[in-house]
Amino acid sequence: MAARKTSGSLLPWLAIAFVVIVVDQATKALIVARFALGDSVTVTPFLNIVRAHNTGAAFSFLAGASGWQRWFFVVLGIVAAVAIVFLLARHGGQRLFAWALALILGGALGNVIDRLLHGHVVDFIQVHYAGWYFPSFNVADSAITIGAVCLIADELLRVRRAR
To answer: Could you read off the pLDDT of 24-43 as tens digits, one per residue?
Structure first.
C-alpha cells in the first residue's frame, strides 16, 4: 500500500478558505442591507430567509452572557485558524482532510469577522418543519459543518485503509 502524500501547497487551501469568507460576507451584507432584525421571507414550505443576530456560538451557546463571549469567540477563532493553517501546511497533500480544514478555516474566520465588525454573527438561513425550527445559520456555519463531516469521513476512510 502506498504512503499518503502529506505535504502539499498551502495556497489552494487558503484560496478555498478565502472564497468561503467572501461568499459568507457577501451574503451577510445582502441580508443586513435588505432585512431589519427579525424580518423573515418564506422561500419554500421548509425554508425562510430571516435576519437574526447571534452573540453566542452554535445553537446560541453563551448568547445570554454579558458580552465577554464576543472576545472569547474571536480569540478562539483566531487560535483555531492558526492551528488549521499549521495543519494545512503539514498535510496539504491529504485532499479530503485539507478540504475539511479549508472549509472550517473559512467558516471560522467569516464568523470572527462578524464578531469584530458587529459584535455578533449575522444568521439568515432558517429551516423548519411542522412548527419545529432549526436555529438560524449562515454560509460560514454551513462551511464549518461540511468541513466537520469531511473530517469524520476522512478519519473513517483512514481507519478502513489501515485494516
So the answer is: 999 999 999 999 999 999 99
> Is 154 a catalytic site residue?
no
Catalytic residue among 24, 114, 141, 154, which? 141
Q: How far is CA 90 from the centre of its chain?
A: 22
Please give the C-alpha separations between residue 103 and each of 54, 55, 83, 108, in angstroms, as whole numbers.
21, 22, 14, 9
Q: Which three cell numbers stand for residue 31?
A: 441580508
pTM listed for this prediction? 0.88
More confident residue, 71 or 67: 71
Does 141 participate in catalysis according to the annotation?
yes
Active-site residue identified among 24, 39, 114, 123: 123
Q: Are 136 and 125 in contact (CB under 8 A)?
A: yes
